[in-house]
UniProtKB/TrEMBL annotation:
Domain of life per record: Bacteria
Protein name (record): Peptidase M23
All copies of domain LysM, residue ranges: 57-104
UniProt-recorded Gene Ontology molecular function terms: metal ion binding; metalloendopeptidase activity
Cited InterPro entries: Cell_wall_metabolism_enzyme, Csd3_N2, Dup_hybrid_motif, LysM, M23ase_b-sheet_dom
Organism, scientific name: SAR86 cluster bacterium BACL1 MAG-120920-bin57
Keywords: Hydrolase, Membrane, Metal-binding, Metalloprotease, Protease, Transmembrane, Transmembrane helix, Zinc
Single GO biological process annotation from the record: proteolysis
Pfam families linked: Csd3_N2 (PF19425), Peptidase_M23 (PF01551)
GO cellular component, one term: cell envelope
Amino acid sequence: MLLIKNSWATLSYGLLALFVVLIIVDVGSESEIKKVEEINEMRVIPALELNQIPSKEIHVVQSGENLSVIFEKYKVTLNSTYQIFKADKTGDVKNLQPGDRLEFSFLDSKIQSIRIIKSPFLEFQILILPEVTISRVEKMPDLIQSFKSGVIESSFYLTGLKETIPESVIMDLAYIFGWDIDFIFDIREGDKFKVLYETAYIDGVKVDNGSILFAEFFSKQRKFTAIRNKGKNKTWDYFNEKGESLEKAFLRAPLDFAYVSSHFNPNRRHPILNKIRAHNGVDYAAKRGVPIRATGDGVIESVGWKGGYGRSVVIRHGGDITTLYAHMEKYNSSLATGIKVKQGQTIGYVGDSGLATAPHLHYEFRVGDKRTDPLTVALPSALPLSKLQIADFQKLRLQYEEVSNALLLRDPNAPAFE
């Protein structure tokens, strides 16, 4: 009997403990549920606040698009569009170009402002509310001087790329010295160069390679120097160490980078006709489609098919001088007889039209009826600096030389310049 009583007592205590545990668990669960509900209640954001969050949409202008169509796409009201066009007195805002960037800012689904970014240097800010206003914002870059040097192994262009010189600076350097140096015919392995140029930054970001300030080129025991200075019409020009202009009436070569495949030779045997036939110009071998540039200012005398020359352009310059460019693949579409062209302007593209065995440019330089070797003809220079400018110019030259020489000592190519 005592055993039975003890068993009932144990069972009673066990049931009581279980009941207490269930009550505690139930209370805890109810507490957790209430706690979760409270958190969810705290995270609810009213619909009104959601609509007031600022937002932005970006549009990059494509070819053929205009401002009216773009504004309609981004729900700019007709009244606002009218007010913007009315406030755009100069027409700079609506004169969009492919690549221009538009940023539309919204609040409460209503457009507040528009940014039209033309370039890293120029943008227009349009405020829609409370009334339409247009602000022109021009950003002035910080110009940081950069220095590079190199020793030519195969070609000037490839050496420049190897030395991490921006391609635009390589091309500018070739153009500046292009009045005196034929970068196709004159360049030799071991030739050296150094260049001091500007690099433009806006808000710490590189946006452009600026102008070349100072450069030297060492070729065939000769040193060529280029120093930027204010010249005619208060524009930047380039001069040698004596203040003489590097600019000539004609560029030495009509192509930037190629090689001479056939020289001026009055007794050359023609490769197709297989007979002695005077070669009254210079042939520049280059890839099909390479741009051909006018070597001097002038007027188009003829453009079209010209017998064995194939597709050709003849330009008449001052002093009874004409230049001929032959075997083109195609012409610059803007060319026509009587049209003026500028030195360095693209007039066509390398091909093999006419009596040609491979893509190349045939170039002739004529004075009157006399054909002259374009590689050796003396080219007249532009005006030098005036006597009043020389003193300041020489100070600038010495400054650039000191900076260049100091930076050269930190350059791995420095031993080659000793």
